[in-house]
Design a protein that fits this description.
Its main location: periplasm. One of its GO terms (cellular component) is outer membrane-bounded periplasmic space. InterPro entries: Peptide/Ni-bd, SBP_5, SBP_5_dom. The protein has about 450 residues and is α+β, with helices and mostly antiparallel strands. It has a domain at about 230-435: Dipeptide-binding Protein, domain 3. The protein is about 30% helix and about 25% strand. It has 13 helices and 20 strands. Strands 1, 8, 9, 10, 11, 12, 13, 14, 15, 16, 17 and 18 form a twelve-stranded mixed sheet that branches. Strand 9 (about 165-170) and strand 10 form a beta hairpin. The longest helix has 17 residues, at about 410-425. The chain is globular. It starts with a strand and ends with a strand.
């Protein structure tokens, strides 16, 4: 990164305390610069983060996580295992941006966190949790500053200035002259226009533009397929999609490749199960597009073939266009679709969490953890907030078995079996994994986008 000062515009600028969680890419980009994850996730694999190593007893009930040497917060106070205990306690009370409680308290029910020394966190669990390091990869340790904002971390950049929701300036610890200025612009059109007018060096989250723009050769374009899944919940509890055959049929009725081309301009990858190709345990083939077989399967059910499709206007991006694509595909195979468009996105999320989904509800699934997707959204044992009535006894037994595998290679194989079951007996309409897109001025080097959609910087030497 040659430039000493860079101006970056993204959708949001904020630093949230431990009890507030989000999957927003712009906020996570800032977290990844200023804070460190306890463990690091890279395309389904876990490597050291703030914890440089960990070990577990053979029964998988006791884990020891060891902090890296000389870990310091930006205020020059030591980072200790007790800081992490306090942080994890707050995480267990966390809610998202819609005020909905996250699942960490359930994961950690009856789990005991203990600082056995200043550098060692011990975790005792009532049953084996093989995915514990992956769960920890979602947690970025932070402290509150004097203003009560969570801006103090142990990461490679420190916060020089912060106006919540507006702006922040970050400085590299290794080369303090390297300054990054982030400004918030909600509308993607405004972000792109700032780049066009040379007011910023980088414009982020341009995949939110509708329609997606041609990639102007005047800029350098960064793009990476996201592990986020654009999907639609199916009402597995009542109505047409309480039948497995109907859930198979709807997945045959929608041409995912055409959706990726027409809605995303080729900037997306067709989905084929509940997680992306970058999730732990993924090894699956594409699902077939077969509208004739879909029509036959629907007809064999002898059910009322009128359904309600509910959709927000964003989250996922291009939501209404995607829903119209689904509606047209279903009309082609003999399904009448009543389309309901809900403008209030927070209320829509609460309705879906309350199981008010009609027959089909467009949504997205953001966790990069296979464990989280299965336990929060699929399992009928845990019945998490996003569970929509799906029940498969074979899968339930397989999820429990996979969850408790301590061996990573064996656990990956067991999760692959779960994902195979979810191909043959789908709980959702699988759609796409969209690309995250940024653009920079020419000559801006050292940046990339990872599969979580976060802007990444090369390490400053």
């Amino acid at each position: 990164m040659k430039n000493s000062t860079l101006h970056i515009t993204q959708e949001k600028v904020d630093f949230l305390p431990a009890h507030r969680v989000t999957d927003d890419r712009s906020i996570l980009t800032l977290k990844s610069l200023v804070f460190e994850p306890l463990c690091t996730w890279t395309s389904g694999y876990i490597t050291p983060g703030l914890f440089e190593s960990w070990d577990t007893e053979s029964n998988g009930l006791v884990w020891n996580f060891h902090l890296r040497n000389n870990a310091l917060f930006h205020d020059e106070t030591p980072c200790t295992a007790q800081d992490i205990v306090v942080f994890l306690t707050a995480i267990c009370q966390s809610v998202d941006s819609f005020g909905m409680k996250w699942s960490y308290a359930r994961y950690f029910n009856q789990v005991i966190f203990t600082a056995v020394s200043t550098t060692c966190l011990r975790v005792q669990t009532p049953h084996p949790i093989g995915d514990l390091p992956e769960i920890f990869s979602e947690f970025y340790l932070s402290k509150l500053d004097r203003s009560g904002h969570a801006t103090i971390g142990t990461g490679s950049y420190q916060v020089l200035a912060f106006t919540p929701g507006v702006h922040t300036s970050l400085a590299s610890l290794k080369q303090p002259a390297h300054i990054l200025h982030f400004t918030a612009q909600k509308a993607p059109e405004d972000r792109l226009n700032l780049l066009r007018s040379n007011q910023v060096d980088i414009a982020c989250q341009l995949d939110a533009l509708s329609p997606l723009p041609d990639q102007d050769p005047a800029f350098k374009w960064l793009s990476a397929t996201s592990c986020l899944s654009v999907m639609a919940y199916l009402n597995c509890e009542k109505g047409l999609f309480s039948h497995s055959k109907a859930r198979q049929a709807i997945n045959m009725a929608v041409d995912r490749q055409a959706l990726c081309e027409q809605i995303y301009g080729g900037q997306a990858h067709p989905a084929c199960t509940v997680v992306s190709p970058f999730h732990f345990g993924f090894n699956h083939r594409p699902l077939p597009y077969d509208p004739q077989k879909a029509r036959t399967l629907f007809a064999e059910l002898g059910q009322d073939l009128t359904v309600t499709l509910r959709t927000p206007t964003f989250m996922p991006e291009h939501a209404v266009h995607i829903s119209l694509f689904i509606k047209n595909a279903l009309n082609t195979v003999g399904i009448d679709v009543n389309l309901e468009i809900i403008e209030n996105r927070p209320d829509y999320a609460r309705q879906i969490g309350g199981k008010n989904i009609g027959d089909i509800a467009l949504f997205d699934s953001s966790p990069h953890s296979t464990f989280r997707v299965l336990n929060d959204k699929i399992s009928s044992t845990t019945r998490g907030i996003w569970w929509q009535g799906y029940n498969n006894t074979e899968l339930e037994n397989q999820i429990i078995f996979a969850n408790e595998c301590i061996s990573s290679s064996r656990r990956a194989d067991e999760y692959a079996k779960c994902l195979s079951i979810l191909q043959t007996d789908p709980p959702w309409l699988y759609l796409a994994h969209p690309n995250s897109i940024c653009a920079t001025r020419p000559g801006i080097d050292g940046f990339s986008i990872n599969h979580k959609g976060l802007l990444q910087l090369e390490k400053v030497q």
